[in-house]
Each structure stands twice: as C-alpha cells, then as structure tokens.
Amino acid sequence: MKLFKRKNKDDLYLSDKQPLNFAGKINLSLIYIVLISWSIVIIWPLYQMVVSAFNGRQGQYLRLNDVFEFSLEHFHYLFSETLYLTWVKNTIIIAVTTAVLTLIIVSFTGYAYSRYRFKGRKASLMAIMLIQTIPSFAGITAYFTIHSIVSDLVPMFSRQMMLILIYTGGSIASNTFILKGYIDSISPELDDAAKIDGCSNLQIYRLIIMPIARPMLAIIALWSFIGPFMDYLLPRVLLTSPQSYTLAAGLFTLINDFRTINQPAFAAGGLLTAIPIVILFISLRKQLVSGLAQGSVKG
Amino acid sequence: MKVTLKNIGKKYEGREEFTIRNIDLEIQDKDFCVILGPSGCGKTTLLRMIAGLNSVTEGDILFNDRRINTVSPKDRDIAMVFQSYALYPHMTVYDNMAFSLAMRKERKKVIDDRVKEAAESLQMTEYLYSKPSDISGGQRQRVALGRAMVRKPRVFLMDEPLSNLDAKLREHMRVELVRLHKRLATTTIYVTHDQTEAMTMASLIVLMNDGIIQQAGKPEELYNKPENIFVAKFIGSPTMNIIEGSMENGRFKSTDGIISIGPSDIDMKSLSLYEGKNVSVGIRPERFESGDHHLDKFDCTIDVVEMLGKEKIIYARLDNDYELVISTPGHYEYIEGERHSFGFDIDALHFFDSDTGIRIN
Q: With contacts defined as CB-CB under 8 Å, which chain B residues touch A211?
C-alpha cells in the first residue's frame, strides 16, 4: 500500500535522484525484466530440486510436472541405501580442516606481507598473484606424485589429507592478498601503540589486528569452508573408494552411475548439503555483512 | 627521568642519506621538551627512536645513565600518545586504558583503580564503557592521554597529539596538557610543527631542520635570541622581517639603500668585525615604532591591513616593492593605500651574517 501512497501530491519528493522521464521509466522496466528473468533461471531449478526431493511419486528418474505427493522416502533412501552420512562426515572434516588451516596460514602470511619489509617481498607477492591464475587441477599429476612419495614415508597420509592440502594451498594465495590489503588499511600506529603497551609480535596480531580484521577472516573462513562442498573434480579423481568420497563426488554417483542411479535422492542430498553452509553463514552473518561492506570500499 | 641523546644518527634502510645526524641533547628530569620543526625534518623519527620503535643507527640514548639503545619499547618505562590516537577500535575505553597494565599482568584491583583515577582526572568516567567510535575527537584524545597516564611512565612521548582537534579545543587541551605535566611530574617529550604550541607549552624547545638541531633552549631564548635566520623566521607569528644589506661606516644599509640603521652601542661591538660585509637584519613585526623622535625612519605604503582584534597586522610595501609585516595595537587607525613612516626599536634588532645565516649580536 505504501507504494501507492507515495504518489500523493502532498508528499515531498525525497529521493536525491532526478525524477524519471519516459525513457528512464522504460529503461527501468527493461532492467527489471532482465533481473526477474535472471532470478527465474536461478530459482526454477532450485524449486524443482526442493519439490522433487519431497515428491513421493518420483521414481528412479526425475520427471517434471509430475503429480505431487508429499513423502520423505527419498531422504530415507539416502540415509539407508547410500553412504550419505559418511560423505557428509568426510566433507565436513575436510571443509573444517581446510578452513582452519587456511585461516592460520593466511593470518601469518597476510600479516607478514602487510607489516614486514623483507627481501623478495614484492617479487614473492607477484609470484603469488601469477600462481593464482593456474587452476589447481593443472597440478593433478604432481598431486599423485606428491601423494605417493609422502604416503611411502608416512603411511597415515591418506588421499583425503592430500585433498585438504590442495584446497588449503589453493586458497592461501588469493586470501593472502585479500587479507594483506585489509590489514594494510589498519593504521600501523596501532601496532606501535601495542608494542609500547607490551605486546610481542604474535600478541599484536592476536589481540589487536585479528579482532579488527575479523570480518575479512570470517569471509575467508566461509569461502574455504564452502570450497570442498562445491568441488567435484578433484575428489572424483583423487579419492578411489565410495567410503572416502566427499558429498559432491558421492552424490554424483546417484545421477551418473546406472547401478546406483536415483535422481530424487540426489535432489534430497543436495538440499541437505546446504544445511551446514547455511548454519555457518548465519553464525557468521554479523561479521560477514560488515566485512562485505568494508571490502567493497577498500578493495 | 633525565633523557640524554649522544650524537644520535638515523639512516633508514634503502636510503642514501642519514635522516637525522649528530643530535646531542640533554632533557632534564621533569622538563617539558618540545621538538619543533617543519614536516620532514626528522622530529618524529627522533621521537620514535626514543620510544624504541625505530632502531638507533649511531650514537647512544641514555635514560638517567642507562643506555637503552637495544631495550625493547615495553621495557623503557615510557608511554606514547599518537597523532591518530591509535585507540584499539574493538575495545571499550576502559579496556583501552587497561590494556597496557593487563599486558603486564597487573592485579585486577590495581588496574581498576588506576583506570578509574585516570578517567576521573580527565573527566571521562561516564564514557568508560563506550567504544572509541562512539565518542568525539576530543574525548578520544583524552582516552589516548588516559591510556598513557595509567602506566605511570617516567617519560611521556607525544607525537603531534593536538593536530587533529579544532582550534578552540586545541587551545584548551594545550593548557590541560601543561597542567597534567605539572601534576604528574614526569619528563615529557612532545613533537609538533606548530610553533605556538611549542612556545606556549615548552620549558625546552628543540628546533630541528634538515635532520639537525638548529637551536635548543627556553622559548624566550629562541624568540629573543635566535641563533640563525631559520630559527628567527620559524619562531614567531607573523614571521620576523629579514632585510638584506651590508655594514657601511658603522651603519647598516639595505641593498637598495632605502633602509639605513644605526645599531645600538652593544650591537656595534660585535658588528665592528663585519664592516663592509653582507649582513641581514631581522626585526619582529611588533618592534616597529611610529613617532617623530625616531632617527632611522623609512617610508612605506600600507598595502593590506589584517584586523585581528587586539592587534592589526600591516603588510607594508617599500618603494622597491619589498614587503614588511608590521604589527600594531588594534585601536590604531591605518588606511590601506596610505603612506606612512615607521622607525625601529634599535634594541630589538637581530643581526645575521648573510652568508652563513648565523647570528652576530
């Protein structure tokens, strides 16, 4: 109702923008049409996924526009007939370890690049930037070699650990850059003040810089947590047994392998996959919002 | 605590030249020492070296008689107030003030007492639990001071702490700082580029330029007996007038011959060696006099009159277009464009060697 009320003659025009003329209005409606159709493209498959996941009338293959009948049988199938819970466990272990490792390493590198002057600082920063452009999949033969060498020495070293190393290593480069930029914007006088107050270098980071950089650290944590959920290629290639699969690789067996195919269960699994990410997102929400906003200004 | 600097020099990594060099200075216990200088003269570098934030390239820094060159900042028993205040944005005012004591594992009770005491003396008690972002610039400045106070350090270091405040507040804080200094009875080293701050607060001014000390002394010494032309021009507002010329037959003659001054007998003693040489004479704006009884008068055209209330600043032009700044009491009438003649207070003349810039009399 508020929308129409605004048209009252008595109301003051409060916007700082010039009132729209005819061409402007057409332009605006075109933009809305594009945006709305874009959202439909994104939302429609998601909607279909949700509906199919709960639709008891779906068989082994998904059929659209089928009759809807509420049922949890696909979820049941997922938990009883597949290794879904193992995959969830694997993924969460990998994701959490990746996020924690990334945070720790990036904290050190970002802080060091921002606050210390040392030989090769610029050169190594450039190298990091260039290395970023190479997709991590390009090193697949190297990964196999590294893994076979290390697992010869340390039999404990599993394929999953290899995966964690790859994810962590891949995210260090870009995140170091991001965090360095963020810490650069924190006044070095704070470091000096802390030094006089009696902090060691590590304490300066832990007590002063880290709390201030928390929004950016939250984003880095979220990104590196989401990474293992999204990636299909590396786990598919590196992990050999379904026991060790991550969610993406595991769920994929439900749609591409004729022995195990069950598309509605895939939809149900996909739906459940979102839960850990949503939980993390909600718990980091406060930090994330301020981090995103600040990041947009400070680059 | 007495702070002694012995032949201090600093060269930054990757620089060709020394930033500061040959600094010799003795700051007595309970002195309010102001390090003054234009930007880029190395004054902040010097302060940071005393704080231990920058390393000492050469020379020694002594606190009392202890050499502290390699002592880390936290063990020097100092506290520093930064230009940007450097308050920790994620902590409350209370935590900011308590931080340094907490880092020293002081007992909670002691910390609480000290913080409350500092907050009270700075009238910040009601803001103790606000975040720095929620209080005004002047209050942040007080927090920064309070943070330094709770430590009860033996040396206070301040790096242009008033430069972010508005003019009115700055004037007020100037007095507050002096009061604080007297009450705490510590040694204070204060860096600024503002000569008014230096003149009003210091018991010892150290004027630096180009990385060396130009003159160190009491404010009145720097004002009344500047050792060289740089000091003469830097101290005092409006700036001292410098007229170039030479000594001829015991009289000072300006280069174009418009101004001719017969120096006083005392000045003459030291000036006699400069007969026929290039000499510059400096005179403070307020030391011009009008009246018929003066001997060495000159004519000028009044160009601009600045009314400041208690005084008028006159920008007068000589016939050769040279500009003199003259300050007169505010109730005197001067009209722009008018011709006027002024004389000198010959006891207040400063003579400098034009070639070296060093004071003669």
A: 90
